[in-house]
Amino acid sequence: MKYIVAFLLFTFAYCDDYLFTTKYIDIPLDHFSFTNNKTFKLRYLVNDSYYVVNHPIFFYTGNEGDISMFAQNTGFMFDLAEKFNSLIIFAEHRFYGETLPFGNESYSSPENLGYLSAQQALADFVYLIDDLQKQHLNSTELEKLPVIAFGGSYGGMLSAWLRMKYPYSVIGAIASSAPIWQFKGLTNCENFNKINTDVLKSLGSENCVNTIKKSWAILRSKTNSTDGKNNVSQQFNLCKDLQNSDDVETLLNWLSEIYTNVVMVNYPYPTDFLNPLPANPAREFCNRVDSINYKDDTGLIQALAAGVGLYTNYTGKVKCNDILQTATSSLGETGWNFQSCTDMIMPMCSTDDDMFENSKWNFQEFSDDCFKQFKVRPLNEEVPILEFGGKDIGTASNIVFSNGLLDPWSSGGVLRNISDTAVAVIIPDAAHHFDLRSENPSDPETVKFARKFHETHIKRWLHKFYLNGNHIYKFKQYE
Amino acid sequence: MKYIVAFLLFTFAYCDDYLFTTKYIDIPLDHFSFTNNKTFKLRYLVNDSYYVVNHPIFFYTGNEGDISMFAQNTGFMFDLAEKFNSLIIFAEHRFYGETLPFGNESYSSPENLGYLSAQQALADFVYLIDDLQKQHLNSTELEKLPVIAFGGSYGGMLSAWLRMKYPYSVIGAIASSAPIWQFKGLTNCENFNKINTDVLKSLGSENCVNTIKKSWAILRSKTNSTDGKNNVSQQFNLCKDLQNSDDVETLLNWLSEIYTNVVMVNYPYPTDFLNPLPANPAREFCNRVDSINYKDDTGLIQALAAGVGLYTNYTGKVKCNDILQTATSSLGETGWNFQSCTDMIMPMCSTDDDMFENSKWNFQEFSDDCFKQFKVRPLNEEVPILEFGGKDIGTASNIVFSNGLLDPWSSGGVLRNISDTAVAVIIPDAAHHFDLRSENPSDPETVKFARKFHETHIKRWLHKFYLNGNHIYKFKQYE
């Protein structure tokens, strides 16, 4: 927790918050066509408290949400920046957080929202990195500053792809929990939910998982009547009673996502990433579910609601639950749904082998839902593979793919080495991009090892970078 | 000339023409954003006369013109296809030839024409290659067919970039005379014209070059008056007399381009690429210029006009010269001018050391001209470097960059090895993408060597491809 001490020197600093200067850069709206010359302001956060001139830039490739949320949950970059005298940048992804190219109208039509895409975001980052290098380079020997990309989850996918598509922009990438293979034909659609279930069973209990599996039919049956809808609404403390079958679907999706999230963020100490949570929330969730020795269907729902309450209201300050939202509003769920409908099409399904309600992957239905919601359809399921290569990425270099085996997203992660320098590290007891968090006394040894692994590779990339340029004055520190 | 025999078997075959089936594929207009779901028909040419199932695809990445023009001037692919049992594809570049996404309206506004870009074209090729692989693969052992990209000039740039950006789409690229370094800061703006001049001096004569250098001031002075404009118009046999100073600029540009083209296509046997020309047209051009022992300015223009006549009317069938066009109308000059204004910004200038009228590179003026012509401006001069990396492309693999030293475009070419497998071959006595032409008795030894070099590398890529997949049944032939 060294950085806290450093930050206390800042005015307005308060405990466990990372401080940044907020900056903006004008970026072309469309990097790939020239039908218009619009630009927009992309927000990025800068921390130069460790920066020594001509040292590396650590660049976080922002994902689907307010960038400050990721900036507050990626302490690893700070721990490392101190060692490497690096500049820390967190770049916001277009159409999320405050980076809204069309302001309040950004989500109003496909004509605007259509500029939300992974490819455009990558080009944004290239553009910003170029600008940062020009701002911060001060050397007659170096042509540019070395930049390391960091990212978790979708941000990790972007980090890896940034290195693959624009290897001149970043000398390497740390791609944590980056499911770049969660696409058609690369992983089975049921894998995600199966892992989720297995993890909850092993961290929580078999009873907990069975309760969930049984609940779907019970909830559907109960909510058939108006009285039933009202009862279930009360049991889950919903802000607005369920009115119709669409609301019931929303409730079931909301519950599914909560069961997923509680596993994804199962860190061994209290955190506030998607929601404020205690240490080991998956276990705590099941403890609450299991604490109720239910006898009937109403009791079963009560048991579930107890678990859900841990996730939705650990602080005790939440008055009621909004089923349209499963996490902090900093997460751009609508934007992500749009991306899922265009270039980030990730087939998902459930079977008898997992705790979720059985469901098949039906591309046509999915496409119809997309059209209903956004007036766009995915062209086909293979778009992400045509764009990024699927498993045929043997030319990739200088990437570390890390995946925790307690993370359902490991289903689409890269769990083996791709080439000599694009390598994988598996973290048996880690949840979603745990390794990107700051050092903590509760860290498992395997997470510490993964962070060392990252550090070793970053040193190697930097060593080669400074050596290639004959900049011997500095590379020694990366040996 | 083996292929000619093969082609005589076709109905409608006639001498020295390569035959193709014309096909079309529906392609998304915008691969990178999702503001609309428009598609267009991309034309491509197929020759399967040598193809044996599960053998490689040779894929020409079309450049700025009608694809059949390139298909008729890239015989090397046919010579090689016979050896490798390959399928031959020539893919047309969007907005050229018949591939007009908005039909007659394609060039009418930036809203339409803006979709003309190198990045979109690359994605088109990826899309088509994926479709071709699905059409032609017939194996339980192979996951896909190996594809080799070929291209000359801008087409060669696209081949190289296709391999760099989408290495899963093509296993290697033959990038002939591809000036991927003809961008800001990568080569001096005067290099192109300097090489052009040196080559014409060495193949033609010092007198020829001096005559050209002297002509600019004379032409400007002569065309100051109406009588002078008429005289010059007659001397150059223009279809329409020069009317104003804009016309004079057009004439001077037209002349410059002719002096360039005659060097670019200086092949040692008669060809019909940009225009019908005799063998060694650069020498012939200067022979004509030098044949007139001029005494005054009118005589000097007469000497130049004699040279120009070789280029514009070698067949003797042209009635008059249109200064709005310097080559076959199959070349999409307007489209290329648009690309020069957006992502293919190539700074050019002339000095006392070359035969052209002195001119400085002035980005602002260039940008203003772009806006006047197309209602677009280049964002900045660095766009192509941000997109494709400039000289920082050390991660590139499986590319052969070939450059003839008689080719002015070698100014922006890759003349040294980039990595272990992205290598350069220099052809001392070759003009623009000479190596992509078919075998000919007049071929210099160095051109034959370059073709062998290509073949060796293609064999190596294929060997590795079939070996990696354990497809031992076939790789032996590539050892």
TrEMBL record, chains A, B:
Reactions it catalyzes: Cleavage of a -Pro-|-Xaa bond to release a C-terminal amino acid
E.C. number: 3.4.16.2
Range of residues in the leader sequence: 1-15
One of the GO BP terms on file: proteolysis
SUPFAM superfamilies assigned to the protein according to its UniProt record, in alphabetical order: alpha/beta-Hydrolases
Compartment list: Lysosome
Main localization of the protein described in the UniProt heading: other
EC supergroup of this enzyme: hydrolase
Alphabetized UniProt keyword annotations: Carboxypeptidase, Disulfide bond, Glycoprotein, Hydrolase, Lysosome, Protease, Signal, Zymogen
InterPro entries: AB_hydrolase_fold, Peptidase_S28, Ser_carbopepase_S28_SKS
Keyword ATP-binding (UniProt): no
Gene3D superfamilies reported in the protein's UniProt record: alpha/beta hydrolase, Serine carboxypeptidase S28, SKS domain
One cellular component term from this protein's GO annotations in UniProt: lysosome
Superkingdom per UniProt: Eukaryota
GO molecular function: dipeptidyl-peptidase activity; serine-type carboxypeptidase activity
Record note on quaternary structure: Homodimer.
Annotated family: Belongs to the peptidase S28 family.
Function in brief: Cleaves C-terminal amino acids linked to proline in peptides such as angiotensin II, III and des-Arg9-bradykinin. This cleavage occurs at acidic pH, but enzymatic activity is retained with some substrates at neutral pH.
Protein name per its UniProtKB record: Lysosomal Pro-X carboxypeptidase
Lineage: Eukaryota, Metazoa, Ecdysozoa, Arthropoda, Hexapoda
